Structures are given as structure tokens and as C-alpha cells.
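Summary for the funding panel

The consortium committed to producing paired sequence-structure records for every protein in the target list. Below we show the first two records in order, beginning with the earlier of the two.
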Amino acid sequence: MSSDDRIRAGRLARSEIDENFADLHPPLSRSEALIEADRCYFCYDAPCTTACPTGIDIPAFIQKIRSDNIRGSAHTILRENIMGGMCARVCPTEILCEEACVRNTHEEKPVEIGLLQRYATDPILETGTQLFERAPSSGKKVAVVGGGPAGLSCAHRLSMLGHDIVIFNRDAKAGGLNEYGIAAYKTVNDFAQKEIDYILAIGGIELKNASPLAAEDGLAMLCKKFDAVFVGIGLADSNELGIDGEDLDGVENAIEYIATLRQAEDKSTLPVGRNVVVIGGGMTAIDVAVQSKRLGAENVHMVYRRGPEQMSASVFEQALAQTSGVRIHYHASPRRIVGNGHVTAVEFAEGLKLDADIVFKAIGQKLNADGYGALEQETGRIKVDGHHRTSMPGVWAGGDCVAGGEDLTVSAVQHGKIAAIDIDRALRKN
């Protein structure tokens, strides 16, 4: 059988694919939201708030939903997390705020905090209602390198504080992984760009897309032209498997395929294999496996070298994959990829062999440090202190590119916010 037969578009009708990629968690109606809000105990020193990386006062925003104060509820959320709309969709609430909920017992389920957060923020973003305004101009100018969650969060908070910002973004669109790296069924209807439009609408932020930092002297140049620099470049390179056959046709980086899928106007035109093997155990591995199945792949296998308890993908995400028809194999390490020009199978050290038309590598991303050699690194990422200052004076950093991060949108937003507050403090002191 030729590779053209094994890998092709149109395995499912467009209508079926559109249905497969509909909103994973449809929004709550008003009555549903009020019923769910009533389940909150409004705890003092609420553990859900403590578990939120951005420190949203969760009982406060839920209480405002109960009183139909949607604007006030959204303000409570967005003042701490300006990307609260996206985080309501993609945040692993099951291991953060909802896991900490006191209702989360064997007898009860936790309050649906993520869906309530979406209920509060969606109307504000849809109408473009501005809840924040710029302070009087400080006369200071800050460069933000990277248009992902960390950079956008930093830029918005700096704008609120009266500074002017220029975002240098390497991609054609801003958003980082929110735009290019998240499963399409988690954020539908171009939501990532709608949220960015809302963030930029505060004013004082100039976005330069398709503007990567020059590799040699770009950072030093920015330090001379701007009063401060924030680096939020994410992790641009993918890790390699380091095994024979990795260069065969049909062996792909999962994150690149997800980006292509996210930008496709008609997903039925995307080629998909009959037999797909995904190597990895994180969110990207889950996303590419489930989406392959929803595009019409007949057999999708996800293979992870350790057990389910070590997977960085949450229990919910693992269950989503399995209920979507993905078979997960644990404790299996890839030994070599087999093929004659094009991949035909993957062999694993434990004796497992799987037929494969497409193999997706999803074993994590790494920092591309070109142009950032002057910044001290730790564990392969940029080293920062508690205020997100780097080793270079006048340069801060945050998001996935910094050491010790959790590689979550919500964490990146918090990094940008913390850095912006410290940048403001430094600029006003100077």
C-alpha cells in the first residue's frame, strides 16, 4: 500500500469533522451558572484561590455571578489574569483550583470553577467592554520580546501603569501556544485572537508580528533603545528522540502539526494516517492523538515510557484520550522507527511493535537560546529571580522559557504580571 493510500485527507466528511471539533466544554446557560454558583461555600482563605497561580479571588467572582453582576465578576477575574477567558478553557482546573475545592470528595464533585469563569468573562470579551484604563503616561518605553501569554500579560499590565510597549513577535499572529499549540476543540471560533484584540484595545501597545529578534545583537540593541526589556520567547525547538529512523518521511513534530491544524480553515483537507503513533505523555501528546482520531485516523496509539501517574497530562486528559478511541501504552520506550523511505512501524524496547503511517514526536520543547547567550541559564532555560529579573540589568523574563516554570498559560500570565510590576517599580525608582 502506498503512503498516499495510508495518509490522505477526507477520511471523514467535513460536517463530521466540524462536529468532532466543536467546543469541548459548551458554555453554561444563565440558569446553569446560577445553580453552579450556589454550590460554592465561599470559604474563608479559600483553598481554590490559593491553588490558582494568578491568585484570582474565586469566591468573590462566584458571589458576583450569584447577584448577576457579570461585569464585576469579570473584573475580579481579569484584574489578576487578563487571559482569564483562555484559561477558563485550557487551564487544568482539575489539578489546580477544582482539585482544591472543598466539595471535591468521593461523594461530591468540585464546583465547576472553569466554566463559571468562562461564563463571567465571555460577555465582556464579546462586547469589548473595557474594564481597565491606562494611567497617565510615564514617558517610559518597554520592549516585550514574544507575543505569547507571558508577553501579552506583561504588556497589558505595563500599559495599565502608563508605560508604552512594543511587542516583537516572531510569528505571523500573536498568542504563542494559545494560537498555535492547543487542541482546536478547546478554543473555537478564533477565540485566541479575540482575546488579544481585547488586550491590545487598552492602548499604548504596538504589536509587531513576524519580527523575530536578531540572533547576534538584538537583545543588546533593545536594551539601548528601550528603558526595559521583557523576554517571553517560549520554547521554540522540539526535543528529538535520538533513535534510528527518526529522519524517515512520516515522522513529524506534534507541535508543528497542531499549528497547521489550528490555522486550517477546512480541517477535512488535512492529511491523516490510518495508523498513528504518538510518542510522549504530556498535553501536546494528548492533543495530537485525540485530534488525529477526530480527523478520521483508524488506529491511534499513544506510547509513554513511564506509568500514568508520571504523565504530565492530567487524569482528565488521559481519560479524554481513551474515551476518544486513543489507546495508551505505558512503560514502553521507543527503540527504532522502521521504514523504507517512509515510516511503517515503531519498535519499542519492551517488545512492543506498532504499525505506523505517521509518528508524532511529542516529548517536549526546549529553549532556542540564539540571541540570548548573555542571559544566565539554569536547567536549559533562562534563570530569573523572584521578580523575574534576569542576570542582565534591565532585562526580565517569564513564561515557558524560564527555569522552574510549569509550562501552563496561567503560569505564564502570572510571570508577565509579576515582571511588569517590578519593571514599573524599577522605572519609577530610576
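The next record, for a separate protein in the list, is shown here:
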Amino acid sequence: MEVLPLERPLLDLSNRIGELRAQARHSHLAGKNEKELAEEIKALEDQFETLAKQIFSNLTPYEITQLSRHPHRPYTLDIVKQLCDDFIELQGDRNFMDDAAIVGGLGTFRGHRVAFVGHQKGRGTKENMKRNFGMPRPEGYRKALRLMSLAERFKLPIITFIDTPGAYPGIDAEERGQSEAIAKNIMVMFKLGVPIISVVVGEGGSGGALAIGVGNRVLMLQYSTYSVISPEGCASILWKDGTQADRAAAALGVTAQNALQLGVIDEIIAEPLGGAHWKPAEAIESLGQALEKHLLELSQMSSEQLKKQRNQKFASMGRVVAREPVSPFRTEEAPNSEWMQSWEQITRIPGFAADAVLP
């Protein structure tokens, strides 16, 4: 199992507990009293829980970013296979090819026929190459659009799982219309008359995430992230130094808690102590309970109500703060009067909203 530096003390304890449990099963060979072993195991389990709470109550945004990328977190197919036992995967965009970085299909979720769509990463080099590290090309988004349009035709709710560093930025993807594919998905999702629930289960990276993220409800797992760019990419642009990723993560506000405070998401789904990769089945069960609750609520709404609620939800994001007109040029930094004269000329343009300019 891949281990993050912050998890190393926990793994050492977990391994020791596993060894003692193995001894307990064969205590007659180990020469130890069963009661003594049980007491030692209980003491280590308490120590594990205390240490885990201490570590995970003080995570930095970049440490949460690392957790969101852990290769043993539940991926879309893991989630779907646990939540429904009749999932049928549908492939291809009926235009160019099948993109394995996005998967989708139909299944029954707790009595509801549902269309599932989600990013899919790989575990190991071979599978990651097949899945393109969870970075879809245009045909992936067009496949997602085909499946969502199919759900609309048959009046099926749509559940999407977001887990991508971002859309693939390669030349071939750009040649086949990457930006158009993402933009069209966003546009069409606003018009669909069926319930849409989107869940960020790992990385929610930029437009590659938003292309399947326009939902009536948007949820996040506790240690997932949602941002316009990766911390490493942001650091490379702002400070020309990718090692400043921890600083960038803090500035970007990538965490679920921050997204909830800003009104970008509707709920945070708690993960097991240590993160979803420690107890994937338990994490998926918690996710299933949240999905069921929101699906029942949305199923009471009409097609027009769903579309209206979805549009209002995203239109209400962000705030405009009215301020006194302030020049963006500080006199101590730009003493040249030509700058100030140019600014004064701009503010005199008819219809210019000076209060929209931030200091």
C-alpha cells in the first residue's frame, strides 16, 4: 500500500496490530495468554485512534490534496459496483472512439434506475496509461454527454463522480475540440430535466471536473479537493516554482470545508478515520446514504423545477461588492501622472462601472 509521509506512524501501528491479531489466532503457538494479547491490541487500537485524530485534525490544504490523490481511494467503478449489483457499462461517443478516462452506464441504486457517469483513474502504470491518469479527451466528455442525454430520454436521474486532475491538455485533444466538448456539456447539463447529483470523490480539477459537475446537488467527500487549477500548476505560474504547491493550495482554498463555506457545494460526506482509502467500503456506504437522501428530495421536483433550481444554484455563486471608485494604481508604486490621467479618462467613459474594479 502506498503511504503518505503523514500516514507513516499510523501504518506502523496498524502493522503491529495486525501482527498481534495473527498471534491471537494462534496464541497456543505464540506462548502468550489470550487476555494479555487482547489487552495489548486494545491499547494499540486506542493509540491508533488518538494519533489519527491528532494528525487529521491539523491537515494543511496541500496534505488534503495529497490524500485526494491517494491511489487506494475508491474510484468510480469501485463505488458503482458496491452501490448497485446490476450495473451495465456503456462505451463510446458514437463519433470517434471510447475514452477509458470516463466511464458510465445504467444500474439500479436502492430501488431507483439511475445513469452513472464518472472519471476513472487507474492503479499501477499499465492501468493508468489506459485511463490516461483520469484525464479525459473530448471523446470522453462526448461519451458522458451521450449517456446523460440517454438518461434524459428515459427520465433517469444522473449521478456523476468527479475525480480528475483536469481535462487532458494534449495537442490531439485540442485538435478534436476539447474546450467545445467541455462547454457543450456544461450548457446541456443546465437544460436537462432530470435530477443530477455530482460528487467530488477525489480531485476536482478545473473545467475537466465541471464538465460533469453541473448538478442540482454537488457533494464532496471530506478529503477531496475542488479547484480551478492544481496547486503545482498554480505555483508554477505565480512563483515560477512548483515546490511552492503547499502555499498555492492554501491560497486556492481547495478543501471541501472552504467550498461549503463559499456555497459551491451542498454537503460534505464524512470519511472514515484516516481517509477513504483506509476503509473504502465504509466510505462508499456513507456516500450511498447521502446519495439516497438527495435523490429522494430531488425526485419530488418537476422537470421545470429541477432546471430552475440548477440554474439558480450556479447563478447565485459569487458576490459583487460595491465600493467607492478606487484607482488600481498606487501612487507610491506608479508616481507617473500619465497613469493617473489614463485612469481618470477610463472612469469618464459612459457606462463604465468604476465600483466593479477592486483595489
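Regarding this second record: The first strand starts at residue 88 and ends at 89. The two ends are 49 Å apart (CA to CA).
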